[in-house]
Amino acid sequence: MNHVLHICSDYSKQTLYRELIIELSKKGIKQTVYVPVRSISEVGKYDIAGIENVKVIYSHILFFKHRLLYQVKIKTIFTDIVKKVNLKNIEIVHAHFLFSDGGVAYKIKAKYSIPYIVAIRNTDVNVFFKYMLHLRAFGREIIKASKKIVFITPAYQSLLVKRYVLGKFSNRVIDASIVPNGLSPVWLEESMFNCAQTLVPLKLLYVGDFSRNKNVIKLIKVIKNFSKRIDVELTLAGGGGNDHERLLNLLQRKEFKFAKYIGRVEGIRAMKQLYNQHHIFIMISKFETFGLVYLEAMSQGLPVVHTAGQGIDGYFKDSSFALPVNPNSERDVVNAIQSILNNYEIASREARVVSKSFLWDEIANSYLKIYNL
Question: How many alpha carbons lie under 13 Å from residue 323 in its C-beta half-sphere?
Answer without folding.
Answer: 23
